[in-house]
Write a structure and sequence with these properties.
By secondary structure, the chain is of the alpha+beta class. Helix content is about 30%, strand content about 30%. β20 and β21 form a beta hairpin. The longest helix is centred in the middle third of the chain and has 43 residues.
Protein backbone atom coordinates (compact mmCIF):
# COMPACT_ATOMS: atom_id res chain seq x y z
CA UNK A 1 0.00 0.00 0.00
CA UNK A 2 1.33 3.38 -0.98
CA UNK A 3 1.70 6.28 1.32
CA UNK A 4 -0.92 8.24 -0.51
CA UNK A 5 -3.66 5.71 -0.03
CA UNK A 6 -5.96 5.97 2.98
CA UNK A 7 -7.69 3.24 4.81
CA UNK A 8 -11.51 3.32 4.81
CA UNK A 9 -11.76 3.18 8.60
CA UNK A 10 -9.48 6.13 8.87
CA UNK A 11 -11.67 8.06 6.43
CA UNK A 12 -14.68 7.52 8.65
CA UNK A 13 -12.88 8.81 11.69
CA UNK A 14 -11.78 11.90 9.83
CA UNK A 15 -15.32 12.60 8.66
CA UNK A 16 -16.47 12.52 12.25
CA UNK A 17 -13.70 14.80 13.48
CA UNK A 18 -13.78 17.38 10.65
CA UNK A 19 -16.96 19.43 9.99
CA UNK A 20 -18.46 19.75 6.60
CA UNK A 21 -17.31 22.72 4.67
CA UNK A 22 -20.34 25.05 4.23
CA UNK A 23 -18.51 27.93 2.59
CA UNK A 24 -18.79 30.20 5.76
CA UNK A 25 -17.83 30.02 9.33
CA UNK A 26 -20.48 29.10 11.99
CA UNK A 27 -20.57 31.00 15.31
CA UNK A 28 -19.57 29.32 18.46
CA UNK A 29 -22.40 26.99 19.49
CA UNK A 30 -22.37 27.43 23.27
CA UNK A 31 -22.36 31.25 23.60
CA UNK A 32 -24.89 32.01 20.82
CA UNK A 33 -27.79 29.68 22.17
CA UNK A 34 -27.64 30.98 25.74
CA UNK A 35 -28.00 34.63 24.72
CA UNK A 36 -31.11 33.93 22.57
CA UNK A 37 -32.90 32.10 25.34
CA UNK A 38 -32.24 34.95 27.76
CA UNK A 39 -33.63 37.51 25.30
CA UNK A 40 -36.85 35.49 24.72
CA UNK A 41 -37.48 35.06 28.45
CA UNK A 42 -36.95 38.76 29.05
CA UNK A 43 -39.50 39.67 26.36
CA UNK A 44 -42.09 37.27 27.79
CA UNK A 45 -41.59 38.53 31.35
CA UNK A 46 -41.97 42.14 30.27
CA UNK A 47 -45.22 41.39 28.41
CA UNK A 48 -46.71 39.60 31.37
CA UNK A 49 -45.78 42.46 33.67
CA UNK A 50 -47.33 45.00 31.34
CA UNK A 51 -50.57 42.97 31.03
CA UNK A 52 -50.97 42.65 34.78
CA UNK A 53 -50.22 46.33 35.32
CA UNK A 54 -52.82 47.45 32.78
CA UNK A 55 -55.46 45.10 34.19
CA UNK A 56 -54.87 46.35 37.74
CA UNK A 57 -55.07 49.94 36.57
CA UNK A 58 -58.39 49.26 34.83
CA UNK A 59 -59.85 47.54 37.93
CA UNK A 60 -58.66 50.41 40.13
CA UNK A 61 -60.31 52.95 37.83
CA UNK A 62 -63.58 51.06 37.87
CA UNK A 63 -63.54 50.89 41.68
CA UNK A 64 -63.09 54.67 41.87
CA UNK A 65 -65.69 55.58 39.19
CA UNK A 66 -68.52 53.02 38.76
CA UNK A 67 -69.74 52.45 35.28
CA UNK A 68 -73.06 54.06 34.53
CA UNK A 69 -74.64 50.72 33.67
CA UNK A 70 -74.06 49.37 37.26
CA UNK A 71 -76.33 52.01 38.95
CA UNK A 72 -79.78 50.64 39.91
CA UNK A 73 -82.90 52.40 38.61
CA UNK A 74 -85.82 52.84 41.02
CA UNK A 75 -89.38 54.17 41.01
CA UNK A 76 -90.18 56.79 43.62
CA UNK A 77 -93.49 58.12 44.95
CA UNK A 78 -94.46 61.13 47.00
CA UNK A 79 -96.19 60.15 50.29
CA UNK A 80 -99.72 61.41 50.87
CA UNK A 81 -100.39 63.69 53.80
CA UNK A 82 -103.75 62.92 55.41
CA UNK A 83 -104.85 66.00 57.32
CA UNK A 84 -108.49 66.67 56.48
CA UNK A 85 -110.51 63.55 55.80
CA UNK A 86 -110.06 59.88 55.07
CA UNK A 87 -112.40 57.43 53.37
CA UNK A 88 -112.97 54.18 55.23
CA UNK A 89 -114.73 50.99 54.21
CA UNK A 90 -115.62 48.97 57.28
CA UNK A 91 -117.44 45.64 57.56
CA UNK A 92 -120.72 45.68 59.46
CA UNK A 93 -123.78 43.66 60.36
CA UNK A 94 -127.43 44.63 60.17
CA UNK A 95 -129.81 44.44 63.12
CA UNK A 96 -133.48 45.22 63.49
CA UNK A 97 -134.48 48.63 64.83
CA UNK A 98 -136.80 46.88 67.28
CA UNK A 99 -137.22 43.20 68.06
CA UNK A 100 -139.38 41.53 70.65
CA UNK A 101 -140.77 38.14 71.57
CA UNK A 102 -144.45 38.27 72.47
CA UNK A 103 -145.38 36.11 75.48
CA UNK A 104 -148.86 35.38 76.87
CA UNK A 105 -149.81 37.45 79.90
CA UNK A 106 -152.64 35.16 80.93
CA UNK A 107 -153.34 31.44 81.27
CA UNK A 108 -155.69 29.82 78.79
CA UNK A 109 -156.08 28.06 75.46
CA UNK A 110 -155.44 29.49 72.00
CA UNK A 111 -158.79 30.19 70.42
CA UNK A 112 -157.46 31.57 67.12
CA UNK A 113 -154.31 33.11 65.63
CA UNK A 114 -154.46 35.68 62.81
CA UNK A 115 -150.88 36.19 61.56
CA UNK A 116 -147.99 33.98 60.50
CA UNK A 117 -144.30 34.39 59.65
CA UNK A 118 -143.58 37.06 57.05
CA UNK A 119 -146.79 38.98 57.69
CA UNK A 120 -146.56 42.75 58.02
CA UNK A 121 -148.56 44.05 60.98
CA UNK A 122 -149.48 47.47 62.29
CA UNK A 123 -149.23 48.73 65.84
CA UNK A 124 -152.22 47.48 67.88
CA UNK A 125 -153.25 44.86 65.28
CA UNK A 126 -154.87 41.71 66.73
CA UNK A 127 -152.52 38.73 66.53
CA UNK A 128 -154.34 35.98 68.49
CA UNK A 129 -157.20 35.32 70.92
CA UNK A 130 -157.01 33.18 74.08
CA UNK A 131 -159.85 31.44 75.92
CA UNK A 132 -159.52 32.05 79.70
CA UNK A 133 -162.25 30.06 81.55
CA UNK A 134 -160.41 30.07 84.88
CA UNK A 135 -159.76 33.77 84.67
CA UNK A 136 -163.38 34.48 83.79
CA UNK A 137 -164.51 32.63 86.92
CA UNK A 138 -161.99 34.50 89.08
CA UNK A 139 -163.18 37.79 87.67
CA UNK A 140 -166.82 36.96 88.42
CA UNK A 141 -165.89 35.99 91.98
CA UNK A 142 -163.92 39.21 92.45
CA UNK A 143 -166.84 41.29 91.26
CA UNK A 144 -169.15 39.53 93.73
CA UNK A 145 -166.67 40.19 96.54
CA UNK A 146 -166.59 43.83 95.53
CA UNK A 147 -170.37 44.06 95.71
CA UNK A 148 -170.33 42.41 99.15
CA UNK A 149 -167.68 44.84 100.38
CA UNK A 150 -169.70 47.81 99.18
CA UNK A 151 -172.78 46.47 100.97
CA UNK A 152 -170.77 46.07 104.16
CA UNK A 153 -169.70 49.68 103.89
CA UNK A 154 -173.29 50.84 103.66
CA UNK A 155 -174.26 48.73 106.66
CA UNK A 156 -171.36 50.05 108.69
CA UNK A 157 -172.18 53.61 107.74
CA UNK A 158 -175.79 53.16 108.90
CA UNK A 159 -174.67 51.69 112.21
CA UNK A 160 -172.16 54.49 112.66
CA UNK A 161 -174.83 57.14 111.99
CA UNK A 162 -177.16 55.57 114.58
CA UNK A 163 -174.49 55.40 117.28
CA UNK A 164 -173.47 59.00 116.65
CA UNK A 165 -177.08 60.19 117.13
CA UNK A 166 -177.46 57.98 120.19
CA UNK A 167 -174.32 59.45 121.67
CA UNK A 168 -175.67 62.95 121.16
CA UNK A 169 -178.88 62.04 123.08
CA UNK A 170 -176.92 60.49 125.93
CA UNK A 171 -174.82 63.61 126.10
CA UNK A 172 -177.93 65.74 126.61
CA UNK A 173 -179.25 63.34 129.25
CA UNK A 174 -175.89 63.32 130.98
CA UNK A 175 -175.90 67.11 131.07
CA UNK A 176 -179.34 66.92 132.83
CA UNK A 177 -178.00 64.30 135.25
CA UNK A 178 -180.52 61.78 133.95
CA UNK A 179 -178.02 59.09 132.99
CA UNK A 180 -174.82 58.04 134.55
CA UNK A 181 -171.44 58.97 133.15
CA UNK A 182 -170.58 55.32 132.46
CA UNK A 183 -173.56 54.95 130.13
CA UNK A 184 -172.42 58.02 128.20
CA UNK A 185 -168.89 56.67 127.88
CA UNK A 186 -170.19 53.34 126.66
CA UNK A 187 -172.24 55.03 123.96
CA UNK A 188 -169.29 57.15 122.81
CA UNK A 189 -167.08 54.06 122.55
CA UNK A 190 -169.66 52.30 120.43
CA UNK A 191 -169.82 55.28 118.07
CA UNK A 192 -166.06 55.27 117.64
CA UNK A 193 -166.09 51.52 116.94
CA UNK A 194 -168.80 51.86 114.32
CA UNK A 195 -166.88 54.69 112.63
CA UNK A 196 -163.74 52.52 112.46
CA UNK A 197 -165.80 49.70 110.98
CA UNK A 198 -166.88 52.03 108.18
CA UNK A 199 -163.24 52.87 107.39
CA UNK A 200 -162.26 49.18 107.36
CA UNK A 201 -165.12 48.25 105.07
CA UNK A 202 -164.19 51.08 102.71
CA UNK A 203 -160.65 49.67 102.57
CA UNK A 204 -162.08 46.27 101.71
CA UNK A 205 -163.99 47.89 98.87
CA UNK A 206 -160.78 49.48 97.56
CA UNK A 207 -158.98 46.13 97.66
CA UNK A 208 -161.84 44.38 95.92
CA UNK A 209 -161.89 47.04 93.22
CA UNK A 210 -158.16 46.61 92.67
CA UNK A 211 -158.58 42.85 92.36
CA UNK A 212 -161.35 43.32 89.82
CA UNK A 213 -159.20 45.70 87.78
CA UNK A 214 -156.28 43.25 87.87
CA UNK A 215 -158.37 40.38 86.63
CA UNK A 216 -160.03 42.60 84.03
CA UNK A 217 -156.62 43.58 82.70
CA UNK A 218 -155.59 39.94 82.53
CA UNK A 219 -158.78 39.19 80.69
CA UNK A 220 -157.95 41.96 78.21
CA UNK A 221 -154.65 40.17 77.55
CA UNK A 222 -156.69 37.33 76.07
CA UNK A 223 -156.57 39.47 72.93
CA UNK A 224 -152.88 39.58 71.90
CA UNK A 225 -151.96 42.69 69.87
CA UNK A 226 -148.79 44.00 68.19
CA UNK A 227 -146.82 46.47 70.33
CA UNK A 228 -145.37 48.17 67.21
CA UNK A 229 -145.48 47.92 63.43
CA UNK A 230 -143.19 45.33 61.94
CA UNK A 231 -142.83 41.85 60.51
CA UNK A 232 -143.68 38.55 62.17
CA UNK A 233 -140.59 36.35 61.99
CA UNK A 234 -141.79 33.36 64.03
CA UNK A 235 -145.00 31.75 65.30
CA UNK A 236 -144.94 28.98 67.92
CA UNK A 237 -148.66 28.50 68.73
CA UNK A 238 -151.56 26.55 67.30
CA UNK A 239 -155.26 26.45 68.11
CA UNK A 240 -156.01 24.69 71.36
CA UNK A 241 -152.49 25.04 72.72
CA UNK A 242 -152.30 25.67 76.46
CA UNK A 243 -150.59 28.92 77.37
CA UNK A 244 -149.34 30.03 80.77
CA UNK A 245 -148.22 33.39 82.03
CA UNK A 246 -144.85 32.07 83.22
CA UNK A 247 -143.04 33.54 80.18
CA UNK A 248 -141.20 30.42 79.06
CA UNK A 249 -142.49 30.04 75.50
CA UNK A 250 -143.09 33.03 73.18
CA UNK A 251 -146.09 33.17 70.91
CA UNK A 252 -144.62 35.37 68.17
CA UNK A 253 -141.40 37.20 67.30
CA UNK A 254 -141.89 40.69 65.89
CA UNK A 255 -139.17 42.84 64.30
CA UNK A 256 -139.13 46.37 62.86
CA UNK A 257 -136.62 46.89 60.02
CA UNK A 258 -137.40 50.38 58.71
CA UNK A 259 -135.01 51.96 59.30
CA UNK A 260 -132.54 49.15 59.87
CA UNK A 261 -129.47 49.49 62.08
CA UNK A 262 -125.95 48.74 60.81
CA UNK A 263 -123.24 48.23 63.44
CA UNK A 264 -119.60 48.84 62.53
CA UNK A 265 -116.38 48.83 64.57
CA UNK A 266 -114.48 52.08 64.04
CA UNK A 267 -110.69 51.87 64.65
CA UNK A 268 -109.07 53.92 67.37
CA UNK A 269 -107.29 56.18 64.86
CA UNK A 270 -110.55 57.84 63.76
CA UNK A 271 -112.85 57.06 66.70
CA UNK A 272 -112.53 60.61 68.11
CA UNK A 273 -113.79 61.96 64.76
CA UNK A 274 -117.16 60.19 64.91
CA UNK A 275 -119.94 62.78 64.55
CA UNK A 276 -123.68 62.19 64.61
CA UNK A 277 -125.29 62.81 61.25
CA UNK A 278 -122.21 61.84 59.20
CA UNK A 279 -123.43 60.12 56.00
CA UNK A 280 -122.46 56.53 55.28
CA UNK A 281 -122.97 54.42 52.16
CA UNK A 282 -123.85 50.78 52.75
CA UNK A 283 -123.35 48.14 50.08
CA UNK A 284 -124.37 44.48 50.12
CA UNK A 285 -122.99 41.68 47.98
CA UNK A 286 -126.51 40.44 47.25
CA UNK A 287 -127.43 43.82 45.66
CA UNK A 288 -124.53 44.68 43.30
CA UNK A 289 -124.56 48.25 42.10
CA UNK A 290 -127.08 49.42 44.70
CA UNK A 291 -126.11 51.86 47.46
CA UNK A 292 -128.05 52.28 50.69
CA UNK A 293 -127.39 55.71 52.18
CA UNK A 294 -127.68 56.16 55.95
CA UNK A 295 -126.30 58.34 58.74
CA UNK A 296 -124.39 57.77 61.95
CA UNK A 297 -126.91 58.02 64.80
CA UNK A 298 -124.98 56.92 67.89
CA UNK A 299 -121.75 55.36 69.13
CA UNK A 300 -120.64 53.47 72.21
CA UNK A 301 -118.48 56.34 73.44
CA UNK A 302 -115.74 53.93 74.58
CA UNK A 303 -113.26 51.56 72.95
CA UNK A 304 -113.40 47.82 73.29
CA UNK A 305 -110.56 46.91 75.68
CA UNK A 306 -109.45 43.97 73.54
CA UNK A 307 -110.00 45.15 69.96
CA UNK A 308 -109.50 48.91 70.58
CA UNK A 309 -112.43 49.71 68.32
CA UNK A 310 -115.63 51.63 69.02
CA UNK A 311 -119.04 50.22 68.17
CA UNK A 312 -120.97 52.70 66.01
CA UNK A 313 -124.53 52.56 64.69
CA UNK A 314 -125.63 53.68 61.24
CA UNK A 315 -129.37 53.92 60.57
CA UNK A 316 -130.36 53.15 56.97
CA UNK A 317 -133.86 53.70 55.51
CA UNK A 318 -135.30 50.35 54.44
CA UNK A 319 -138.83 50.94 53.14
CA UNK A 320 -138.86 47.87 50.89
CA UNK A 321 -137.31 45.59 53.54
CA UNK A 322 -134.45 44.76 51.15
CA UNK A 323 -131.96 44.72 54.00
CA UNK A 324 -132.61 41.82 56.36
CA UNK A 325 -131.42 41.56 59.96
CA UNK A 326 -128.20 39.59 60.23
CA UNK A 327 -126.72 40.56 56.84
CA UNK A 328 -123.00 41.24 56.41
CA UNK A 329 -122.46 44.62 54.71
CA UNK A 330 -119.76 47.17 53.88
CA UNK A 331 -120.16 50.70 55.21
CA UNK A 332 -118.14 53.44 53.48
CA UNK A 333 -117.80 56.75 55.29
CA UNK A 334 -115.49 59.75 55.29
CA UNK A 335 -114.12 60.87 58.65
CA UNK A 336 -111.69 63.66 59.49
CA UNK A 337 -108.26 62.47 60.60
CA UNK A 338 -107.68 63.76 64.16
CA UNK A 339 -103.96 64.40 63.47
CA UNK A 340 -101.49 64.44 60.62
CA UNK A 341 -100.50 61.06 59.21
CA UNK A 342 -98.49 60.06 56.14
CA UNK A 343 -99.82 57.42 53.74
CA UNK A 344 -97.33 55.23 51.86
CA UNK A 345 -97.65 52.08 49.72
CA UNK A 346 -97.24 48.83 51.65
CA UNK A 347 -94.65 47.66 49.10
CA UNK A 348 -92.15 50.23 50.39
CA UNK A 349 -91.87 48.70 53.86
CA UNK A 350 -88.75 47.00 55.24
CA UNK A 351 -89.38 44.83 58.29
CA UNK A 352 -86.26 42.98 59.37
CA UNK A 353 -83.74 42.73 62.20
CA UNK A 354 -83.01 46.46 61.85
CA UNK A 355 -86.63 47.37 62.56
CA UNK A 356 -89.50 48.86 60.58
CA UNK A 357 -88.21 51.34 58.02
CA UNK A 358 -88.46 52.65 54.48
CA UNK A 359 -85.89 53.79 51.94
CA UNK A 360 -85.78 57.20 50.30
CA UNK A 361 -83.56 58.89 47.72
CA UNK A 362 -81.65 61.85 49.15
CA UNK A 363 -80.36 64.97 47.37
CA UNK A 364 -77.23 63.12 46.20
CA UNK A 365 -79.33 60.33 44.62
CA UNK A 366 -78.24 57.85 47.25
CA UNK A 367 -80.28 55.39 49.27
CA UNK A 368 -81.15 56.47 52.80
CA UNK A 369 -83.11 54.38 55.31
CA UNK A 370 -85.64 56.05 57.64
CA UNK A 371 -87.24 54.29 60.64
CA UNK A 372 -91.01 54.80 60.89
CA UNK A 373 -93.93 54.12 63.22
CA UNK A 374 -97.03 52.56 61.64
CA UNK A 375 -100.36 53.81 62.91
CA UNK A 376 -102.71 51.78 60.71
CA UNK A 377 -102.44 49.06 58.06
CA UNK A 378 -105.15 49.37 55.41
CA UNK A 379 -103.79 46.54 53.27
CA UNK A 380 -102.59 48.31 50.13
CA UNK A 381 -101.29 51.32 52.07
CA UNK A 382 -99.83 52.14 55.47
CA UNK A 383 -100.51 55.12 57.71
CA UNK A 384 -97.24 56.39 59.17
CA UNK A 385 -97.37 58.36 62.42
CA UNK A 386 -93.67 59.30 62.74
CA UNK A 387 -90.54 59.23 60.60
CA UNK A 388 -91.73 60.99 57.42
CA UNK A 389 -92.72 64.55 56.57
CA UNK A 390 -94.45 63.88 53.24
CA UNK A 391 -91.82 65.62 51.07
CA UNK A 392 -89.49 62.62 50.63
CA UNK A 393 -88.74 60.72 47.43
CA UNK A 394 -89.89 57.34 48.66
CA UNK A 395 -88.65 54.21 46.88
CA UNK A 396 -91.88 52.49 45.92
CA UNK A 397 -90.70 48.87 46.13
CA UNK A 398 -88.31 47.76 48.87
CA UNK A 399 -85.11 46.16 47.50
CA UNK A 400 -83.45 43.77 49.93
CA UNK A 401 -79.96 44.21 48.41
CA UNK A 402 -79.82 47.98 49.01
CA UNK A 403 -77.50 49.31 51.68
CA UNK A 404 -77.15 52.80 53.10
CA UNK A 405 -75.44 55.11 50.59
CA UNK A 406 -75.97 53.02 47.45
CA UNK A 407 -76.20 55.28 44.36
CA UNK A 408 -79.46 54.97 42.42
CA UNK A 409 -81.05 56.53 39.40
CA UNK A 410 -84.70 57.65 39.45
CA UNK A 411 -86.84 56.54 36.54
CA UNK A 412 -88.08 59.49 34.54
CA UNK A 413 -91.64 58.17 34.35
CA UNK A 414 -93.37 59.15 37.63
CA UNK A 415 -94.67 56.24 39.70
CA UNK A 416 -97.59 58.26 41.09
CA UNK A 417 -98.63 59.01 44.64
CA UNK A 418 -98.48 56.71 47.61
CA UNK A 419 -102.04 55.55 47.10
CA UNK A 420 -101.71 54.86 43.39
CA UNK A 421 -104.63 55.98 41.29
CA UNK A 422 -106.45 57.36 44.26
CA UNK A 423 -104.38 60.53 43.99
CA UNK A 424 -103.40 62.96 46.69
CA UNK A 425 -105.78 63.23 49.62
CA UNK A 426 -104.61 66.53 51.03
Amino acid sequence: MSATETHPDRLDNQAQDTPEDLGFELPAAGKTSKVGIIVVLAVLAGGAFAFRFLRNQSAHAESITPHAEAIAKVDVVKPNTLTSASALALPGITKALEETKIYPRTTGYVRKWFVDIGDKVKEGQLLAEIDTPDLDAQLAQARAQLASAKAAVKQAQAQSTYTKQNTARYQNLADQKLVSGSQLEQTQAQASTDEATVVANQANVTAAEANVRRLSDLQNFSKVTAPFAGTITSRTIDRGALLTDTGTTPMFTLVAVDPIRVFIDVPQTVAPSIQYGTPATVTVREFPGRNFVGTITRSAGALDPDLHTMSTEVDVPNPDNALLPGMYVQAALTLPVPHKVIEIPATALYSDAQGIRVSIVDAQNKVKFVPITIERDTGATLWVATGLTGDEKLIKVAVASFVEGDPVEINKAPAGSASGSAGDKK
